[in-house]
Design brief:
Blueprint (H helix, E strand, L loop, with lengths): L2 H23 L8 H19 L7 E7 L5 H9 L17 E5 L17 E2 L12 E7 L1 H4 L7 E5 L12 H10 L2 E7 L6 H12 L3 E7 L6 H11 L10 E5 L4 H5 L1 H4 L1 H14 L3 H18 L1 H5 L3 H30 L6 H12 L6 H11 L1 H14 L9 H23 L4 H11 L2 H20 L2 H14 L2 H26 L3 H53 L7 H25 L2
Parallel strand pairs: 1-5, 1-6, 2-4, 3-4, 6-7, 7-8
Antiparallel strand pairs: 2-5
Helix pairs in contact: 1-2, 1-23, 2-5, 2-11, 11-23, 13-17, 13-22, 14-20, 14-22, 17-18, 19-22, 20-22, 21-22
This protein binds guanosine-5'-triphosphate (GTP) and magnesium ion (MG).
The site of guanosine-5'-triphosphate has 22 residues, from α3 and α8.
């Protein structure tokens, strides 16, 4: 993949996750997922993008996180090797991430798009209590950092995550945590089991972050018991384990101020542990990126699930539209097609039967046979007039279509009004109806009706005419049918005369009538077959020209015109593929 394609890929992934995060915030049921979506987007921007854009692995990043007042700034001090981070008795004192870097040398900060998201870098030093979406970089004196991990790592002192729900500084924490190659999770004796930090620890472990737990402020003698307790109460319930659990018992004020000189017993194991984890920067960063991609892939469904309700609502809408279409089609069949006789076919039948009579000189012979068949014709007329059912008059077509359309539209409008309060999609449809959706439906329908009429045209007329015209155009077939029928009749009459002699004259009309009856019967079967085919064809044309286009347009209606559902559809389509591409791209960087 070339660089522009890579940039586009990570940009789209991060944007889509960002869009889903905003979307989650607007829905109370999914608000809790906003954090994980921000974290996922930050993994793409801060971890995957720099690697794919060829930025160096060094420096690595270690983020110190934990609950309010747990001792994060104190631990950050220890890692850097000096008294630097402002530790303050006021809980929640550190309000924005602070990056500690060596005193000299350029900082190789990736320039990839969206690196650290919305966090702005402060151009001048500010107190840690500055509450804004910013981060600052502090240089650490050379004499100090020889004791710490700055040679390999940028040390991030982070704000706490207690006010998880607030949109304020939690995103700042998420940005830096996502960036981190190693996370030091600090929990104090006083509040080791708080729900919010514990949830955050779970997210970090789920995401495959390398976590070092540091328990603080217990009495030295209680340290092993506290570790065991923390293991049982917190870590045993986690999806993965931290790489180590260390302890920093309650320090004296002198140790807090200068841990290098006064607390090496606690500081050295911590520093060593972090050093080991950063032994090879490319390996460590490679692992960070692999874990990030693995997390994104394995949590894909969860990440997209903020859209689940919307998709369910969209599905319900589509089903309702389709049911409406089926009802529209069957109403047309019920109320129009089944009662429509297609009179032209009756005329066609008469023409067909007439055609079978001999023309010219043969007409005389035909007339003679007609005379013979008179008793049959008379009896048939009598029978028909006595038993004929009253004619069902079919309603005109257009009013039936209009009524079916109105029924369809009303059903949609009613459901939208009923479900409007339950989901924004139905509200959106409801607003559509208030803003003239029904009129637009009618207009579209009228336009398609024109097309329907054009294509139907004189199709009925043509099909009916074709019944006898085909025969007329084929004189050979016509003549053989005519003479065939005539010959059969004559042969049958002669045969009856010979077989029963004188009384044969009485049988002749009967024989001729039976043959005529058979001819009419088969002719009617033939014409009825075409009548039925025409009915089916007309039904298909209504579906093709009227109901299907409307159904398609309506099913897509909520997701067009720049609505949230359009974006949702785009994300649902491209996100899985983009994620797949990201995995392939990351795997190819070895
Ligand atoms: N005596 C003593 N004080 C400690 C110890 N650890 C932290 N403190 C104090 O506890 C307070 C909070 O410690 P910090 O390191 O600022 O805690 P934090 O987690 O950074 O706190 P916020 O940034 O406010 O969330 C500070 O006044 C520290 O000096 C300790 O082991 N011993
Ligand atoms: Mg702090």
């Amino acid at each position: 993949m070339d660089q522009p394609a890579i940039r586009n890929l990570t940009k789209e992934l991060a944007e889509d996750l960002g869009w889903l995060e905003e979307h989650a915030r607007t829905q109370p049921a999914h608000a809790a997922q906003a954090g994980i979506l921000r974290f996922a987007a930050a993994l793409v921007r801060n971890v995957a993008a720099p690697l794919l854009e060829g930025h160096a692995a060094a420096p690595l990043h270690v983020a110190v996180v934990g609950g309010a007042g747990a001792g994060k700034s104190t631990i950050a001090n220890m890692l850097c090797g000096a008294v630097l981070a402002e530790s303050n008795p006021q809980a929640g004192f550190t309000r924005h991430p602070i990056a500690y870097v060596p005193a000299t040398g350029a900082i190789a900060w990736p320039s990839s798009l969206g690196y650290l998201g919305p966090l702005q870098r402060l151009s001048r030093p500010e107190p840690a209590s500055l509450d804004a979406d910013v981060y600052q970089i502090r240089r650490v004196g050379e004499d100090a950092h020889q004791f710490g991990v700055l040679e390999k790592f940028v040390v991030w002192d982070c704000p706490d995550m207690t006010i998880w729900a607030a949109t304020g500084y939690v995103p700042r924490l998420l940005e830096v945590s996502a960036l981190a190659d190693v996370v030091v999770y600090v929990a104090s004796d006083e509040r080791y089991n708080d729900a919010v930090p514990t949830d955050f620890l779970r997210l970090l472990l789920q995401a495959g972050k390398v976590v070092v737990v540091t328990l603080t402020k217990m009495r030295e003698a209680d340290a092993p018991a506290f570790v065991a307790h923390f293991q049982k109460e917190v870590l045993d319930k986690m999806p993965a384990l931290p790489v180590a659990t260390l302890t920093v018992p309650h320090l004296t004020p002198a140790q807090v101020v200068d841990p290098c000189r006064n607390a090496p017993l606690y500081r050295v194991p911590l520093v060593n542990q972090i050093f080991v984890l950063g032994e090879s920067a490319p390996n460590t960063r490679g692992r960070t990126v692999q874990s990030a991609v693995h997390f994104l892939k394995s949590h894909q469904q969860h990440l997209l699930s903020v859209a689940r309700d919307d998709l369910a609502a969209l599905d319900a809408w589509r089903n309702l539209v389709r049911e409406g279409q089926m009802e529209f089609d069957s109403r047309y069949r019920r109320e129009f097609l089944t009662t429509e006789r297609f009179r032209r076919f009756d005329d066609a039948l008469i023409r067909l039967i007439e055609l079978l009579e001999l023309p010219g000189v043969g007409r005389f012979a035909s007339k003679t046979l007609d005379v013979l068949r008179m008793p049959y014709s008379f009896a048939k007329r009598l029978f028909n007039s006595a038993f004929a059912r009253p004619e069902v008059i079919g309603l005109p077509e257009r009013p039936i279509l209009d009524a079916a359309l109105a029924g369809w539209t009303d059903q949609l409008r009613k459901e939208a009004a009923r479900l409007g309060p339950a989901h924004p999609l139905w509200k959106h449809v409801q607003q559509g109806f208030n803003g003239g959706l029904a009129e637009t439906i009618r207009e579209r329908f009228n336009d398609s009706f024109h097309g329907f009429q054009l294509s139907l045209g004189d199709e009925v007329e043509r099909t009916a005419r074709a019944i006898y015209e085909d025969l007329e155009k084929n004189p050979v077939a016509l003549n053989s049918l005519r003479t065939g029928k005539f010959a059969v009749e004559i042969a049958a009459i002669i045969a009856s005369l010979f077989s029963v002699g004188y009384y044969g004259f009485a049988l002749a009309p009967l024989t001729s009538s039976v043959i005529q009856m058979l001819a009419e019967y088969f002719g009617k079967q033939y014409v009825d077959h075409h009548r039925e085919a025409t009915r089916a064809r007309q039904q298909a044309l209504v579906t093709q020209h009227l109901s299907s286009p409307l159904m398609n347009w309506l099913t897509h209606w909520p997701s067009t015109g720049g609505s949230a559902y359009e974006k949702l559809g785009t994300i649902m389509r491209r996100f899985p593929q983009n994620l797949q591409n990201l995995e392939v791209a990351v795997d190819s960087v070895k």
